[in-house]
Design a protein that fits this description.
Blueprint lengths: L4 E4 L5 H8 L3 E4 L5 H7 L5 E4 L7 H4 L5 E4 L9 H7 L2 E3 L6 H17 L1 H10 L2 H6 L11 E5 L3 H14 L2 E5 L10 E3 L2 H7 L2 E4 L13 H6 L5 E4 L8 H9 L5 E4 L19 E3 L8 H19 L28
Parallel strand pairs: 1-2, 1-3, 3-4, 4-5, 6-7, 6-9, 7-8, 9-10, 10-11, 11-12
Helix pairs in contact: 1-12, 5-8
């Protein structure tokens, strides 16, 4: 029998790819369209996911025993369909939490100190004009950051902002579980009303979809900045654009959007008070290696019949598909 086949929707770290290739055949989808993914999984045993999967992908991959998300959020994977088909879903939670938190802090600093505008002005105009822009900058120290979602990313962000920068950090989570220092627990409304920056670090779920609508954005402190490193669908984008255009919000830091790639005609592209990035908050050379290594480990575990470390749909395990290459299945 040939070695097992692992399909990648997108490239992974080169060293991790090479390590995977020592244990399995590796197929990189040329372009991660629905049709290309369906074709690629026809003989696949495992799938490492960095792009949205079509809902019927598991029908087209009859030998698939696992879909492993190269990241934490599993909204790219039709988890219910996987469970129904007997396919295990795993992810790599927390691996890039510090990476995303560093991005958020960096962009908050850039926005507060007007660094992007200063850089562009110095290049295009002159020293005095660029330097004068600094007069409108602000310190983060002493200001209030509200974090919606106190998981791995939110907690990492809270530590850097609170312990490192001396910010007051308000936290909100649906669970009654206590929040670690330096969080101060707040109701959602209180967090919105008091925070100079509101950072969204929650996962996309039916409860968080559209969470930041016009009513909640209106509750935010006048002049506040919305930071979204969650998912685009957590924010009602038209309501955000209206609040920015009308001056209620001072600005926004956005790494994710309702439609990705961000449309060329999006009004967000024309707003100087908004910092944009192409869904890369969690991507660095270091985080890619960590995410890739854990994703590959779990793919190989599933192919060998072992339960992965971070099984997202545990209900599937008793009736999971059996690997063609398993030596001994985990009960």
């Amino acid at each position: 029998m040939n070695r097992p086949l692992v399909v990648l929707t997108n490239p992974i770290d080169a060293r991790v790819h090479a390590d995977l290739a020592r244990h399995a055949r590796v197929l990189l989808v040329p372009e991660p369209t629905a049709g290309a993914i369906r074709a690629a999984v026809a003989q696949a045993d495992a799938l490492i996911v960095r792009a949205p999967l079509p809902d019927d992908v598991f029908v087209h991959g009859p030998h698939l025993v696992g879909a492993i998300r190269h990241g934490a959020g599993v909204d790219m994977i039709p988890v219910d369909a996987a469970t129904a088909a007997g396919v295990a879903v795993a992810n790599v939670p927390g691996v890039n939490a510090v990476t995303v938190a560093e991005y958020a802090i960096g962009q908050m600093l850039s926005w507060s100190r007007r660094l992007t505008r200063i850089d562009a002005t110095l290049r295009a105009a002159d020293w005095p004009t660029a330097r004068a822009l600094a007069d409108g900058g602000r310190d983060l120290h002493g200001r209030t950051l509200g974090i919606v979602g106190a998981g791995a990313i939110g907690s990492a962000l809270a530590r850097i902002a609170g312990f490192g920068l001396g910010m007051t950090v308000l936290g909100h989570r649906r669970s009654p579980q206590a929040l670690p220092a330096p969080f101060q627990r707040a109701t959602f409304d209180e967090l919105l009303e008091r925070s100079d920056f509101v950072a969204l670090t929650c996962p996309l779920t039916p409860e968080t979809r559209g969470l930041m609508d016009a009513q909640r954005i209106a509750r935010m402190k006048p002049g506040a900045v919305l930071v979204n490193v969650s998912r685009g669908a957590v924010v009602v984008e038209t309501a955000l654009v209206d609040a920015l255009a009308g001056g209620h919000l001072g600005g926004a830091v956005l790494d994710v959007f309702e439609a990705q790639p961000l449309p060329a005609d999006s009004p967000l592209r024309r707003m100087d008070q908004v910092l944009l990035s192409p869904h890369m908050a969690g991507i660095t050379e270091d985080s890619m290696r960590r995410m890739g290594a854990l994703a590959v480990d779990q793919a190989l575990d599933l192919i060998a019949g072992r339960r992965p470390a971070h099984l997202v749909n545990p209900a599937v395990w008793p009736h999971r598909r059996r690997s063609r290459y398993a030596q001994q299945e985990t009960p």
